[in-house]
Amino acid sequence: MKYIYIGLAICIVLAFSSLKASAQVDLAETENLDNDSIQRKVEVAFRSINEQDLLGGVSVIDVEALTEKSYTLSSLAFVENAVGGVNGNIWGMNEMLVVVDGMVRDANNVLPTEIQQITILKGAAAVVLYGSRASKGVIQITTKRGKIGDPSLNIRVNTGVHVPKSYPKYLGSAEYMTFYNEARVNDRLDPSFSIEDIYRHSTGDNPYRYPNLNMYSSEYLKSMYNQSEGIAEIFGGDERVRYYATTGYYRQGSLLDVGNTSDNYISRMFARGNLDMDLHENLSVRADANATFYDASDARSNWWGGAANLRPNRVAPLIPLSYLEANDDISWATINASRYIIDGKYFLGGTQADQGNPIADAYAAGSNKYVSRQFQFNTRFDLDLKSVLEGLKFRTWYGIDYALTYNQTYFNEYAIYAPTWTNYDGPDRIASVTQFGVDRRSGREYVENSAYRYTYNVGGMFDFSRTVNENHNWYGMVVANVWQRRMSGEYHNLTNVNLGVQASYNFDHKYYVDFSSALPYSAKLPSANRLGFSPTVTLGWRPVKEDFFGTTVFDDLMLTVSGGIINQDMDIRTDDNQMGYYLYKAVLERDGWFSWADNEGQAAARINRSDNPDLNYIKRKEINVGLRGSLLNRFMTFDFNYFRGTMDGGITRRSSQYPIYFTQVGYPSGSLIPYVNYNIDDRSGFDFSMYFNQDVGALDLTLGVSGMYSKTEASRRDEVFSPENAHLSSIGYHVNGIWGLKSDGFFRDQDDIQNSPIHSFGEIVRPGDIKYKDINGDGYIDNDDMVFLGRWDTPFRLGVNFTAKWRNFTLFAMANGYFGGYGLKNSSYYWVSGEGKYSDIVRDRWTEDTKDTATFPRLTTGNGANNFRASDFWLYKTDRVNLSQVQITYDIPESSLQGTFIKGLSVYVGGYDLLTISKERKHLEMNVGSAPQTRFYNIGVKGFF
């Protein structure tokens, strides 16, 4: 924390010293500054360039312009729609790096209103200068800076409501009990519930004795909840000092409206300041600071988890006191001793088997507050060394981030009371109550789950740029960049150390050549292999500037070809070692269940792996081709990219390379096999973005279409299969694959079971169970019969956005499409077995009467080991189109604001996540075990002063 305070102090001192200097500037000089001739700058790795000189594998989004017509709270809301190449990942590679103002940071700690521009670095040549941890793509966020001019103030206020899309549909008590009895009979067991009990639960005459609990009812949930936000921005400055500052507060309520859950909320308060100072004609300084305070307070009740699991007939959470007989002094004394008499009318009900439930928890279990605090500071110094060499500059930067999270919790215990019912004189009454548990409030606040994360960024660079004879444009850079992240609970810091070199040349902005390389250093590797070399080369050609191209419809056309090899250590890790350090070293452990008296209970030795001094980087080898341009006076702009490459050298333990005695089975188990570079993945695909602009009278129309298709297939794996099991090989299949069995309907009867392959999943197979195909023909159904079923990710991603401006009205709409992916319906809503809660899906279960029409297996009180496993029976397509946003904005005419202090005023209304078009819409819009998905309706006002 002391570094945060030191940084803030430096920022304040520099600000005041610069303000003093800038006070001497003649304001008349600033009025004559003309920036119109400056081409739009795009931030790429460690520098900014003119947009026309962007080479392939880079896309840019003008977030400031988009937020004028599209309100959102997500910093990356436009990334997957406005440009191609992003689909939760970049070019099919997960774990993209996020860089904010040159510092490695979280994207969710910056709001769209704070952002000037987002650059997506996709190609190998575009990311190489950032080093190993950037090898899978970079999202580069640039926040707003101060502008020359008088102080200006922007204020934005939003408020809206979240409306749930859908809730899971579960059976009521009577229907559940009926089906549960059926499941018991299917398992050759006696029914658990009598017909009379089922009838009593169905009538609803006494829901306290015969519960029919529905935790999704309006008794416990609101129909909507509020979200409100206010943001202020102030900016201005002169040629010496420019400043930008913003602050805001956000608060969101909750759907829950029972007990203390009605006070649940999430809040976020933040402040950011960016300062630019020209201290001398050869020296400029940037100093930025940001603080974010995030709180989430809720009652200690796992409401949504309970709603998905608590069966409707189990318990009546609140029981009216009126059911107690007036002269039952013992019961009254027991109940009156409770701390929790709800609204003076109810006591907390339960049973010996159910001594707690989410409703009772909401009233009595206490509260929890999640607290997150993030502080960030960074500064940058730019020194012009033209006195040494014209065009030479030096830059250095330093940034520190500190994030702290913890929980403030009050744990309360409470008693529940199980009633014994009677109806000796007609109506139901409580004859007695039995108390389980005690009421206990410690009054002590527990601070737990404390965690911190400390990140620092430091670097420096020399760059040189020079134009010779007007046409020869040279650029060179040498950059040293280090960032390190320390996290609580981790024994080793996450580190990225990199030296980058770039040399580029273009002739008349027509022919381009660029060489960019990096020398990464990784402590994950043996000392001899820690330094790598990552070279990339890019060639560019603008054919429209050629004489032979002549007069065409093209305004601009740029063709780029890029290739390179990036050394990365991101994937040097294992399931039990996510940090990935020391995997090249042998591991020898003590083990055993008996020992001599002096060996502390461990008499055996276990070897977990051997040394591998040759372990090396994993290499991203890639070539990509890009085509960018515009035509018909920018009626259409376009950007296309094709990429193909491999991720070579993924680590694995090659058991097929070693004799069987290198692996020790039995006790103690172990292996001498080391980790080696072996696996290869082939990756290919394309992305595109096109924008069409057309004026029709007073109507200004813009249509944007973008998308990406990618695939990553296993090319080499250490696999040895017998010929009959060759189908189990992952080679040639997508790495994000769903593997499972092929179903063949249901078993119709016992003869069908007898004449089919043996299903060996540890459960007796009965008619109505799922029948599987014997892929390897060995007469047994087991995991050796699994096949590739499909990809769980989205192969093809499509984004469409539309803008229509007419006079002072602006309509903006955005939709996203996902195609080619698959999923498994494997939540507790579908995989119903044992004592689980029954959803409406079981109404289509298999019975003797429905064997020709059933779409769900027979019901069972067993574990469903045969039916509830990965297979194409549960497979579904995730294809869908989402209408993500629609917003209408009205700008108040300037003539209406004349004579006021208001320079501009806009009002807007919008809807978000409004519509899903899909065959599986019901499933895709339904959450099980968590808060429901919502549609958000917002109204906002923005003023410029």
UniProtKB/TrEMBL annotation:
| The name this protein goes by in its record | TonB-linked SusC/RagA family outer membrane protein
* Pfam family membership, one: Plug
- What species is given as this protein's source? Natronoflexus pectinivorans
Which positions make up the signal peptide? 1-23
Q: Where is the TonB-dependent receptor plug domain?
A: 84-138
* Keyword vocabulary terms for this entry: Signal
Matching Gene3D superfamilies, A to Z? TonB-dependent receptor, plug domain
Q: Which PROSITE patterns match?
A: EF_HAND_1
- Keyword Signal assigned: yes
